[in-house]
Structure formats: structure tokens, C-alpha cells
Amino acid sequence: MDLLTDEEFRQTAYPALHRLFVCDDPYDAPFAPDVSVRWILFRYNYRLTSSEVTWPLRETIMRYAQRHAEVGFYYSILGRPTAEGGISVYRTWFVPFTELDVYHRLVEPLENIIYSPGGRWGILCSDESHGLLGGDADLAPFLTPWTRELERQVHEFIDNWLGYHADYGAEITWLPHLLRHVYGDARAQAWITAYRLED
Asked: 81-120: per-residue pLDDT in tens?
């Protein structure tokens, strides 16, 4: 794993990141307009892993990346960017797929983004156990076998936040906006109506 200099970040990682995400807020509307494949991942706990019980996220991403001859991904820690020349510079590493064990030891419980060097896929992670997976249209067939699992995760994500709201008074007015941003108006409205998120 190599830590990028600020200049390397600006020259190589930033263009890929900006192709996927226009902001780093996992509760707002972070996806760039051209990101056509979008999903909420729940529970996504800071790192690219797989669950034998639910679905092989890591292997799915690796197969997709390898199809495009990508040998790894960028890992950027959020929270304290420095703005230079109008660009937020994050502490960023390049992680070869052959060094995932080093990556797993490095990752701390901090909001982060992992993303393809070509800007083909990325996951923005929150500090509340959800991630936002986005990518280009070519990613869709790789996720199709897991559609039912991904939809289950949306329901669990909404249920989780409704529980936070009921138990602790957590603010959830942002949920409909995020759902519309990720899934589009028609699809999101079905969940918004079913869960009475705008009552």
C-alpha cells in the first residue's frame, strides 16, 4: 500500500473521485450526475469485506475491477481535508488487491471513500454503518444476482433509522432526500410511502 503525496492525489486520485462523488456527505446527495448504478449498503462497517451469510461484496468488486484491468483501489480518509486550489485533499492510499490484509489492518473507524482508479465504482462510508455504492452502467450486471440482498439492506437501513428516531429522537428528515438521490423519485417514493417517512 502506498500513501499518495498531495500532488499525486490531485493528479491521479481526485479525477477518479470526482467522477463518482460531488461531495463527501453520506447523508446528502453525493453521487455525480453520471453515476447510473446506485445502492445503499447496510451494514457497511468502514471496509471492503464480504459476508458468507449475505453476499460477496469484496469478490464482486474485485471481479468488476479486474474486468477493467484495475489491480487495486484508492482509500481516502474523510474528515480533515485541506483545500488547495479549490480541491479538497484527503489522506489517500493506493491499495492493490494483493494487499487487502494490510488495508484491513490500516482501516480505522473513520468515514472514508474507496474508489476505482478509473472512477468506475466507489463506496462512500458513513460513521453510522451505511455505505453508498455507485458506479457506471457496466457495474449493474455484476450486482444483479444480489438485487434481493441489496433491497433487503435498504429496508434494514430504513428500519434502523426509524429505530434511532423512536428511541433517541434522531433526525430523519434527510432520509427521503437520500432515497430519492440514490434510487430516483418513483422507486424511492414506494419506500417513503410504505414507511410513512413524510407524514
From this structure: 555 555 667 889 999 999 988 888 888 888 899 999 999 9
Selection from 24, 121, 135 nearest residue 73 by Cα: 121
Judge whether 96 and 4 are in contact, CB under 8 Å: no
Residue 13 region by backbone torsions, left for phi larger than 0, else alpha for psi between -120 and 50, else beta: alpha
pTM of the model: 0.92
Q: Using one digit for the tens of pLDDT, what is the confidence trace for 30-63?
A: 999 999 999 999 988 877 876 654 678 889 999 9
Query: Domains of the chain: which residue ranges?
Result: 2-144
Q: Are 15 and 4 in contact (CB under 8 A)?
A: no
The distance in angstroms from the start CA to the end CA of the chain is: 48
